[in-house]
Automatic annotation (TrEMBL), chains A, B, C, D:
<feature type="binding site">
    <location>
        <position position="167"/>
    </location>
    <ligand>
        <name>substrate</name>
    </ligand>
</feature>
<comment type="subunit">
    <text>Homotetramer.</text>
</comment>
<dbReference type="InterPro" id="IPR012338">
    <property type="entry name" value="Beta-lactam/transpept-like"/>
</dbReference>
<dbReference type="GO" id="GO:0004359">
    <property type="term" value="F:glutaminase activity"/>
</dbReference>
<feature type="binding site">
    <location>
        <position position="191"/>
    </location>
    <ligand>
        <name>substrate</name>
    </ligand>
</feature>
<keyword id="KW-0378">Hydrolase</keyword>
<feature type="binding site">
    <location>
        <position position="114"/>
    </location>
    <ligand>
        <name>substrate</name>
    </ligand>
</feature>
<dbReference type="InterPro" id="IPR015868">
    <property type="entry name" value="Glutaminase"/>
</dbReference>
<comment type="similarity">
    <text>Belongs to the glutaminase family.</text>
</comment>
<keyword id="KW-0007">Acetylation</keyword>
<dbReference type="Pfam" id="PF04960">
    <property type="entry name" value="Glutaminase"/>
</dbReference>
<protein>
    <recommendedName>
        <fullName>Glutaminase</fullName>
        <ecNumber>3.5.1.2</ecNumber>
    </recommendedName>
</protein>
<feature type="binding site">
    <location>
        <position position="160"/>
    </location>
    <ligand>
        <name>substrate</name>
    </ligand>
</feature>
<feature type="binding site">
    <location>
        <position position="64"/>
    </location>
    <ligand>
        <name>substrate</name>
    </ligand>
</feature>
<feature type="binding site">
    <location>
        <position position="243"/>
    </location>
    <ligand>
        <name>substrate</name>
    </ligand>
</feature>
<feature type="binding site">
    <location>
        <position position="261"/>
    </location>
    <ligand>
        <name>substrate</name>
    </ligand>
</feature>
Length: 309, 309, 309, 309
């Protein structure tokens, strides 16, 4: 697939010509300070090849992309019982909406909106102190990426803790419905920290490759999850991975993916490759504007859309 | 693919053993009178083979499955301008909710909820009398299925017209926001009639085959839509095709599909086949209970999920 | 109370100096064409005195003020059973919101929002053709005002019928919940016609006087409603009479009242007088901007607030 | 008014015969443990007479009744600027709903729902430590009641702090919109403490008497608030004092009042008296079931309804 190197180079060049780059997330200083001009892309194929362009080795805050990994961990711990805690439906509302939580008595609609990921963090705390749970998440991501240098950006985690009032409200609200087993402070500690993981496009593509490879980790040959679970996680990414822009992303790109407000998007082309793009400017739904565009180009030129013949 | 005949036979047998069959839609007498014991399944492969079991040649009311065909027609008429009239996001609410319409000033979330299909019907009325628009829809479905015997069940259409107060409310509500170009009565006339199309599993599978075949009609060799449009319609079916159970259907079945309250579901396995199942009992989201289960079996045993490696 | 004549003259003069007059309702041509410069005020005391200023004898479209009279009639017909059909709570949403109707399964929050008045009109249709029900309402208002010249403005009623899509949606929506006994067209016919009553400030004050006089009609000496019912209607006007501005009106004016989008407001000072003001420009809640201000002045200078010592 | 003693005795007797007493609030152990059989009533007239029956001298947790006093204090501090922080409209939703806060960007609908009282507590913290603000509130209530023995029940305050997750969510949610000036913990500290004031019917009636007496404290002869402010606080109590049962209370009782989940209700008959009832069992809106009934009897027999002739 030599064409893929030319493809990522092309995409990088075309993205560089774009003048409208979206708005960088500004709710914490660490994200607000990021230059919107960054762009990186990395493709990791299931046969182990890598094709990168732009700043593919610059770490950024993966934010909500981390929810794919905590979901995988939680499913490994409690299996389908997870769905007693959180639904599997698109939310139809912004990522941090509290309205739906009231209507559904504290049960979040899916594991990728903030409330849902907070519920998942609560599951990961079972039998653990927050520090341990955070440690397990970091170890898991390092294992998936085959890279022990991956760390949490403590400044980001600290800023989120200081200013994440909306997430505190979500957690306390779920607590008020008896839907959290642990103190909201502990749960949020886990949540804010895993969102603060700093990774590069290359690392993130490697870490997500098992979802493209039927649940196996091509690097180690080991099984991360069963093929069925990999399929189902992909299905959740497709229907719920981009907040209230999930339908649009499926329509335009046609691949399961998960975005983060740091501007990263991890995408899975089942049987073919995992792909990560990074461009910090966001669209009105909180997803990377140019990252989405780059992936639309990629899907069009590779024909990797899961909806095609 | 001889295995497919054994597969549909197996599925029919296993479905026959199920005791919980869901609730038949009862808002009009014609649907309420349907025996919940019916079951049919038909697979049409892109190379023209057909595999059927059960009552695959018994006509049923396709109801909302027809929205796939009216969407295809409307996209053919106005292209992407359609998206000024209707969104592309899952709704997060029941199929006939009016709440979201108020929040979004009369613009429906997607073309598959009732309000969205009403907006699509309004588009199809451009330059036409209601009768003509209905005629065009019937002609299009006959052409797709290669079967001129397909007709609208007038009793069903009439009953809907008599009792579809909620849909009247949706249409009048959109009208109050200036979002309909034609009188609500005309738009609803078109909507109620296309929902009353009576088709068999075999006919419906044939009619939907172009979506599995990159937009071509394998029977005639002609192009119905471009490959890109077929992909995008499939994406919409995946994210929005089953009302507030779309996420669950994607999770369990992993194929784009569209359900109707008559108990039919049309599903697309891109590059492989179109499939239709019919079982009149519905689950709490208004989708065929055993039809969903049959498709879950089929996806599992064929490995056709679009989310798999 | 000779001071009252000076008071209404003063108020008229002060209102004339106001430059910000609000926005005239523009959803039908008949209302849109009304000059925002009109102003009238009439006080009718329980001992039969009248004090007027400005255009107190010019007829205007009373619109929702008519809901006080239809409520009174319906309570006379079915008594407290009315409250099975409609609630008694402020709505917390705009006058024509449909959201609450969905949450509460088609039961309107109170008889003064549009949906509630539509439910009341349905009650008034029992045993009647629409024309008869409308005739009874007109007769009742004429009787209350002691004035047989009061008529419905047919052009207004016709325009509402032509363009009142939102109200049609409300009625059909209630019908879909089984909450209307009669065809939506009939119910709306009654509703649109009573809203189109044309009355002067003087006529409206006279017609509302029974609510200030413990249920008696001071002119005839007859009893319109019991003292308890008069009190309770007044309570409903206080909590629900001004849509989502009811709290503000109670805070500023402190008297039970009912407003209409024609710019009229009928107000009751229990034991003292009924008052009507008319100024066509509306505030953001759909209540007369200068009419509210005039009543605030009046309440302040008379000390008639029901909340005072 | 010797009849008043007979009246309260009668009411006490009739209430004692009621078998349906409502449900005691059970979200904290201190309230859950209260015997639903308690009943007390106290009338304090503006000329200084007191009429009591039942357990009028037993202290109970006044809970939300305290919001009348904090509102009065806050208006004294910042005047009408308070209305930039909180609205004056009935909410149309339960007392602790978070939905409306999202729709209105963190501005509560009125000062008597939980979110609104939290905003008022934030105002009271200006220039103060939480302990000082709490101290001022206690001093103010002691001054109004002329009774230095009134204290906060620390166990109740502590329990609320431990389990009031919903209120924490409300405060954090408002904080996320930038609508609180102080840390949520401080604001909630003030809020939970003033709700934990323990008072008797007699003390509460005395403390609320200024609202019936045009703002003056009949005991001391001093002015607490201006007559206009007393009127306006009464208006707020009428439209918003009983959560989503405010309309019903106005309809049945016809007097401004404020209820608390401890089962107390303070009511104002302008120019005549303040009245307090206490019966711990609540109706479905969170207001004292038998307390409301007792007040309905009282209003009926005294003719004190503000809506009457």
């Amino acid at each position: 697939m030599d064409g893929l190197q030319a493809l990522v180079d092309d995409i990088r060049r075309e993205i560089a010509t774009q003048t409208e780059r979206g708005r960088v997330a500004d709710y914490i200083p660490q994200l607000a300070a990021v230059d919107p001009g960054h762009f990186g892309i990395a493709i990791t194929t299931v046969d182990g090849q890598e094709y990168v362009a732009g700043e593919a080795d610059t770490a950024f805050s993966i934010q909500s992309v981390s929810k794919v990994f905590t979901l995988t961990l939680a499913l490994g711990m409690v299996g389908d019982r997870l769905w007693n805690r959180v639904g599997r439906e698109p939310s139809g509302t912004p990522f941090n909406s509290i309205v739906q939580l009231e209507r559904e008595q504290g049960k979040p609609r899916n594991p990728f909106i903030n409330a849902g990921a907070i519920a998942v963090a609560d599951v990961l705390l079972a039998g653990h102190q927050p520090k341990e749970a955070i440690g397990e998440i970091v170890q898991f991501v390092r294992f998936l990426a085959g890279d022990d240098t991956i760390v949490i950006d403590d400044k980001v985690a600290h800023s989120e803790t200081e200013t994440g009032f909306r997430n505190v409200a979500l957690a306390q609200f779920m607590r008020s419905f008896g839907k959290l087993d642990h103190p909201a402070e502990h749960v949020l500690g886990v949540y804010f920290h895993h969102c603060a993981l700093a990774m590069t496009c290359r690392q993130l593509s490697r870490a997500g490759l098992f979802l493209a490879a039927g649940g196996r980790s091509p690097a180690t040959g080991g099984t991360v999850v069963s093929p069925g679970r990999a399929r189902r996680i992909n299905a959740l990414m497709l229907t719920c991975g981009h907040y209230d822009g999930s339908g649009d992303f499926a329509y335009r790109v046609g691949l399961p993916g998960k975005s983060g407000v740091g501007g990263g998007i991890l995408v899975v082309a089942p049987g073919k490759a995992s792909i990560t793009v990074w461009s910090p400017g966001l669209n009105e739904n909180g997803n990377s504007l140019l990252g989405s565009l780059a992936l639309e180009m990629l899907a069009q030129r590779t024909g990797w859309s899961i909806f095609g013949a």
